Automatic annotation (TrEMBL):
<dbReference type="GO" id="GO:0016491">
    <property type="term" value="F:oxidoreductase activity"/>
</dbReference>
<comment type="similarity">
    <text>Belongs to the short-chain dehydrogenases/reductases (SDR) family.</text>
</comment>
<keyword id="KW-0560">Oxidoreductase</keyword>
<protein>
    <recommendedName>
        <fullName>Short-chain dehydrogenase/reductase</fullName>
    </recommendedName>
</protein>
<dbReference type="InterPro" id="IPR036291">
    <property type="entry name" value="NAD(P)-bd_dom_sf"/>
</dbReference>
<dbReference type="Pfam" id="PF00106">
    <property type="entry name" value="adh_short"/>
</dbReference>
<dbReference type="InterPro" id="IPR002347">
    <property type="entry name" value="SDR_fam"/>
</dbReference>
Length: 323
């Protein structure tokens, strides 16, 4: 990457936001999954100091209100717009997108941060497995529906961005099981592998979105690092996290792994959303706020898999994603 601020494992969201304050100024941003004690909240909070408008989302209106109040308490001038959104429901995604599309303001950045992680097998109202629906299909549909709003923000000097928060779990297993995506089977289900498939899908979608938009939208994916968020405190997730060595028997973080704080965990998302050095690197994968394409598993960077995933996801949502 060209000269500019240098980031590391320890860099915080506030530090990255301050470094790119000029880029964030005047921008309207939507961040999914912004509950307190999560990296989406920390991402929104750090950007709210400089942004024109930050749309925060969550499926629980009461928790969404708490996030809004917490940001405004710290940053009274912040322009926060709460949006109820359940990514596991096509109807909810369509309703939320329609609400944003009906507003006059353009949308400069969409950050697909929300995730369902390591949960028991359950079908959504649309007949999909919950993790793949919430982490991949829902965000794909949301991005598709908001694409016109994103494209409207483009100028000769600015290309809108879409950010997918992935995870090192994108390397789990052999990548997306396309049959399981279309035809969920509880007998073949693994919490760990399903999460890995969803995170692999995030990386593949960023690559394919950048390719298909032909320069009209720049998409990026990233690893936020290992962070003790509210996801790791969910009872149905704990046994799986213990089995793969993330949590110890005491349900506390395994200190053999390098853990980030919430502010450190949200830093890379903001870099992906605003670092101007990424303008000529569409589809890139970031780690520690820096391009790290070498870390992606082969099954998460395969162009053929990216194209196949895109086509199957269009089939699932029942409409084509056109630019």
């Amino acid at each position: 990457m060209s000269t500019g601020p240098t980031f590391s494992f320890a860099t915080t969201a506030d530090e990255v936001a301050a470094a790119f304050a000029a880029e964030i100024k005047g921008k309207n941003i939507l961040v999914t999954g912004t509950s307190l004690k999560g990296i989406g909240f920390e991402t929104a909070r750090a950007m709210a100091k400089y942004a024109n408008r930050v749309i925060i989302t969550g499926y629980n209106a009461e928790r969404l209100k708490l996030s809004e109040e917490a940001i405004k308490k710290e940053i009274p001038q912040a322009n926060i717009y709460p949006l109820v959104l359940d990514l596991s429901s096509f109807a909810s995604v369509r309703k939320a997108a329609a609400e944003i599309n009906a507003q006059p303001e353009p949308l400069h950045v969409l950050i697909n941060n929300a995730a369902s992680s390591f949960v028991d097998f359950k079908l959504t109202v649309d007949g999909l497995e919950t993790q793949l629906a919430t982490d991949h299909v829902g965000p794909f549909l949301l991005t598709k529906l908001l694409a016109p709003k994103l494209l409207a923000s483009a100028t000769p000097m600015y290309t809108p961005r879409v950010v997918f928060v992935s995870s090192p779990a994108e390397g789990f297993g052999t990548g997306v099981d396309f049959d399981a995506l279309e035809h969920p089977d509880p007998a073949k289900y693994s919490k760990q592998l399903a999460y890995g498939q969803a995170k692999s899908a995030n990386v593949l979608t960023a690559i394919e979105l950048s390719k298909r938009s032909k320069g009209k939208i720049n998409a990026y994916s990233l690893s936020p690092g290992l962070i003790f968020t509210n996801i790791l405190e969910k009872e149905d997730s704990i046994p799986t996290l213990q089995s793969i060595g993330i949590l110890g028997e005491d349900k506390k973080p395994n200190t053999e792994h390098p853990w980030k704080t919430l502010p450190q965990g949200a830093a890379t998302t903001i870099a992906a959303a605003f670092d101007p050095r990424l303008n000529d690197k569409p589809g890139a994968y970031l780690d520690d706020s820096t391009v790290a394409n070498h870390l992606i598993a082969p099954h998460s960077s395969d162009p053929a898999k990216a194209e196949k995933l895109w086509n199957i996801t269009e089939k699932i949502i029942g409409e084509a994603f056109v630019f």
